[in-house]
Give the backbone structure.
Amino acid sequence: MSIIVSPSILSADFANLERDINLVKDAGAKWLHIDVMDGHFVPNITIGVPVVKSLRKVTDLFLDVHLMIENPEKFIKPFADAGSDLITFHYEAAKKPAEVISMIQDFGIKAGISIKPNTQPEEIFPYLSNVDLVLVMTVEPGFGGQSFIHECASKIPVIKENAPESLIIQVDGGINNVTSKICTSLGANSLVAGSYIFNSDNINKAVQSLLN
Ligand code: DX5
Ligand code: ZN
């Protein structure tokens, strides 16, 4: 099974985003992970719709948008219109997850559902046959550069055993050349990495080490 690497621009240079995304593209990444935070669902504020719109104009990378926001249903249309290829929302933030999933897919794009470290995988079982992706957070969402929480990785096989073969299982938080192998050996096939890639002296090598 091939691994999808999704570099998180949270650790990129925001004054030179186009340059940085071309570096990860040249290194072989096909996806780009965009962390949207609202200062309510998580204690941090990052970027919003205009950034996705601007990135869409300069790249053909698959735009993987991770919404860490309350009331995600209010923002599906603007993020879809901005050019997202996948929108992942948090299960904990949605009153009606099934409705958010169909709202996203109605725009002809992929839908993902994410769980925080303290949410049990069983809670999202009802959605596994409808979503395209499950994002297992391996840190508390909110900041880049945190350490991988090992216990979270045990959710991967639980989800895999209860999901259709086609489901993409993504991990996000503290992913590097060591923790990536733990996750892929347990069944994850998409790796988000921010600081490991963008804070590295050799972006090309960092992306390659996750791809292989
Ligand atoms: C954290 C974000 C992550 C973050 C990962 O809330 O969802 O995508 O950028 O950063 P690293 O790879 O540095 O842990
Ligand atoms: Zn993320």
In short: Residues 8, 10-11, 33, 35, 66, 139, 141-142, 144-146, 172-175, 192-196 surround D-xylitol-5-phosphate (ligand 1) (CB under 6 Å). The helical segments are 17-26, 49-58, 76-81, 97-105, 155-161, 179-186, 195-198, 203-211. The beta strands are 4-7, 31-37, 62-68, 86-90, 110-115, 133-137, 168-172, 190-193.
